[in-house]
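User: Sequence in, structure out. Go.
Assistant: Echoing your sequence, followed by the structure tokens.
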Amino acid sequence: TTVLAQLYGALAARGAATAWLTLDNDDRLEKRFLACTVIALARVARPFGRLVEAAGQYFQGIPVATVRAAILQACARTSQHLVLLLDDYDAVPDDALGPLLEFLLERMPANLHLVLAARSTPRLPIATLTVRDEVIQIGVNDLRFAADEASLLFAADASRRMTAAELQTLMDKTEGWPIALQLARALLATPAHEHP
């Protein structure tokens, strides 16, 4: 989520129409997910007018296939680059959205980009998308600091130099997670008499 928030800020700063949707258990229902997607996209792009009205009622009485097609057409009608960030994708049980997302991924217009954040790899055609150069995966190991990156972080604090052994111990304990390293850095910068 932190990385997604940084991406959101960077995209917004560049003028990309970026919509954020945090998923939960209720998004397993296709029409609810599609309604929330339309509402999120409508906040950043114009061509969703009538769809927003129908989304307010979860597209009651409208077939899912019609809703999917209408969303893709609305996205294609805008000249804006649209980015839809889906946070906590794994909060949706049993990969209930997998078939729907596969459908959308296969038919997305060139101006629509989808970013998924999940704690596990979603059951989507990742290999196929990778071969087509249509996906970028950022995994756990990409998010962790390497020893040289951690060394640079601690070198910035001139008040306390760490030995290579101390740094290695810290890397072993934190597994290189940036927030853990930041907390350790803050703790080490605090005078000993102020530690709890």
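User: And one key feature?
Assistant: Residues 33 and 78 are 21 Å apart (CA to CA).
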